[in-house]
Amino acid sequence: MKDNFTKIEKSDFKKYDLLKQLADISPPIKSIYIKGTIPKDKTPIAIVGTRKASSYGKKTAYDFSFVLAKNGFLIISGLALGIDTAAHQGALDAGGQTIAVLGNGLDKIYPASNGRLGEKMISSGGCLISEYPSQTPSFPGNFLMRNRIISALASAVIVIEAPFKSGSMTTAKFAVKQKKPIFVVPGTIGSFNFEGSHKLIRNGARLITSVNDFLSDMSYDLIRGENKKIDLKSDEQKIVDELKKYSGSLSVDKICQITKLNPRDVSCALSNLLLEEVVFQEGNNYQIKL
Q1: Each residue's pLDDT tens digit, 191-215
Q2: How far apart are alpha carbons 46 and 62 in whole angstroms?
Q3: Measuring CA to CA, which residue among 61, 116, 115 is closest to residue 91?
Q4: In the list 105, 175, 192, 220, which could disulfide-bond 134, CB 3.0-4.6 Å?
């Protein structure tokens, strides 16, 4: 990446709505570097989790991010593999903005495999952020320290899938010190990847199993009134039309088969239809809400 970034000194943090909370965090930050555009007038939500994520974890991160971004939230994560990548991609696929806090200089994206994703984030109106100047390598300790920035920028932190010893747990610890609300998606009992997640829940973090759980706890009401027309995308309308033909409910596999849509598109469409209360879920099946 070329060094076409902006350096912002601590004295100027409070000039930016998104950055003002960085002025007083500990350990302190002297300056930060920005590559891209700092989004305005969007509520920032951090979505974090393990690099070695399960398919369940990645799908959950993607779906949460997609729905939140579509409804005007700004998604923050760390551009790592696994949960971070799924969260950034979900926001972009929803046509929203997302930003990443890196643990190295902005002259390179780490991991390199996420280079195109990082560039897409910038071209879509988001940005990359780092407290480290160019040529700073990706030292392990840097990633732990950057997590205090992720939590500080966010209005709330959603933990999707976190082992007991993980960067996500560090982010949660910083969030507690910064008095940021923490929300956790539960996983399978006994799963190594969810030991940290379940520990957070036992220690008082909010358990959530859907985006609506999160929105309700955060006192957001994004559900449109019954008498207001809901504009559906083509994929969403196709699914609704097919569900109307059936008196019972349909599984995701069956919906894919009938509509000829790929699983990711069906998953994204169903997430929004659930949020709009057009459909409801029964186990693993979906049905039109009467």
Answers
A1: 999 999 999 999 999 999 998 889 8
A2: 13
A3: 61
A4: 105
The domain spans of the chain are: 6-217, 234-288
Q: Where are the alpha helices (DSSP H) in the chain?
A: 55-70, 83-93, 115-123, 140-153, 167-177, 195-202, 211-217, 234-244, 252-259, 263-275
Span 36-52, mean pLDDT?
95
Residues comprising the chain, all counted: 290
Residue 37 near residue 6 (C-beta atoms within 8 A) = no
pLDDT tens by residue, 149-187:
999 999 999 999 999 999 899 999 999 999 999 999 999
Strand partners for 52: none
Which tokens sit at 287? 């049905």
Q: Are 15 and 24 in contact (CB under 8 A)?
A: no
User: Which helix (H) or strand (E) covers residue 287, if one does?
Assistant: strand 285-288
Checking DSSP bridges between strand 206-207 and strand 279-282, what pairing results, if any? unpaired
Q: How many CA atoms lie within 13 A of 155 on its CB side?
A: 16
- Residue whose token pair is 């976190």: 162
- Burial code (b: 16+ CB inside 10 Å, e: under 16) for 221-237 equals eeeeeeeeeeebeebbe
Rounded distance, CA 233 to CA 223, Å? 17
Total-model pTM: 0.75
CATH of 6-217, one of 3.40.50.450, 3.10.180.10, 3.50.50.60, 3.30.390.10: 3.40.50.450
Sequence-ordered list of residues with C-beta below 8 angstroms from that of 173, at least 6 positions apart, any chain: none
